[in-house]
Structures are given as structure tokens and as C-alpha cells.
Design brief:
With 148 residues, the chain is mainly alpha-helical. The protein has a single domain, classed as Methane Monooxygenase Hydroxylase, Chain G, domain 1, CATH 1.20.58. 74% of the residues lie in helices and 0% in strands. The chain contains 4 helices and no strands. α1 packs antiparallel against α2 and α1 runs parallel beside α4.
Length: 148
């Protein structure tokens, strides 16, 4: 197998992995309120990311053999391999799509955490300081008993 063919194959692997990450990111959006399913998806993403890192190392090594001393953008401008150029542009597009999905999921998770924090603050807020008869306790309407 030639270096260019191996390079093509690794690019294809990276695209496939990123497509799986995009799909899991979209699934994450629907199960964001279910910690068990979310944890399962995150575990799957970790294995996908490990595979992506390995493919990226291979791609980098193959590119160093294919075009020593050149940057990827300079090589793309001078190469006659138009299908490979299209494949790399496809990879960049998928990567940008994955970034957008991850940013949106991060915002949704932050909003969920803010809502949970707000709810907890409502439940455990200290009762307002009021005047009461000496040696009597003010009645509290708190749901959670904080005494130990």
C-alpha cells in the first residue's frame, strides 16, 4: 500500500469517528436530564476520542512522509489529488459541526446545573430573620431539616 492510500484511509477513519461523535452529541442532547444514559454516552465518547487520537497520530506521521516540511494547507494548494482535498475539507466541516454541537451541549448542561442550583437554594434557604419572643423558636417552612 502506498503512503497516499494509507493517508486516504486514515482520513476516512477520522471522518467516520467524528460522525459517530456527532451522533452521540445529538443523542446527548435528548438524554441530558438522565444521568445514567448520559454517563453511558460519555463513556462511549471516551473510547471514540482515544481512537480519534490514534488516527490523528497516524495521519500526522503519514503526512510527514507524504509531504516533508510542508504545511497541510500549502500541500492542499499544490496537490493533484482532488478527491483527497475534498475528503480533507469534509473532515474540517465535520469537525466544525462537532464543535458547534459540543458548545450547545455545554450550554444546555450549564443551564441544567443553574436550574438545579436555583432549586436547591430555594429548598435550603435560611428563613428570614424576624423578631420573635425571647426563648422561642420561629417556625420554619423549610422542607429539609438541616440540624444534625
Amino acid at each position: 500500500m502506498q503512503v497516499i492510500d494509507a493517508f486516504r484511509q486514515v482520513i476516512g477513519q477520522e471522518i467516520a469517528i467524528i460522525e459517530q461523535l456527532i451522533q452521540s452529541g445529538q443523542t446527548k442532547r435528548t438524554v441530558i436530564a438522565d444521568p445514567e444514559q448520559l454517563s453511558s454516552i460519555i463513556d462511549q465518547e471516551r473510547t471514540l476520542l482515544a481512537s480519534l487520537e490514534q488516527a490523528e497520530r497516524e495521519r500526522s506521521q503519514l503526512f510527514d512522509v507524504l509531504a516533508p516540511g510542508q504545511s497541510l494547507s500549502a500541500w492542499l494548494e499544490t496537490t493533484a489529488e482532488t478527491d483527497l482535498v475534498d475528503q480533507i475539507h469534509n473532515l474540517r466541516g465535520k469537525y466544525q459541526q462537532l464543535q458547534q454541537i459540543n458548545e450547545l451541549n455545554q450550554q444546555l448542561i450549564q443551564e441544567s446545573l443553574n436550574l438545579v442550583q436555583y432549586s436547591l437554594n430555594l429548598l435550603v434557604a435560611d428563613p428570614p430573620m424576624t423578631y420573635a419572643k425571647p426563648k422561642s423558636q420561629a417556625t420554619s417552612k423549610s422542607i429539609i431539616d438541616r440540624k444534625v
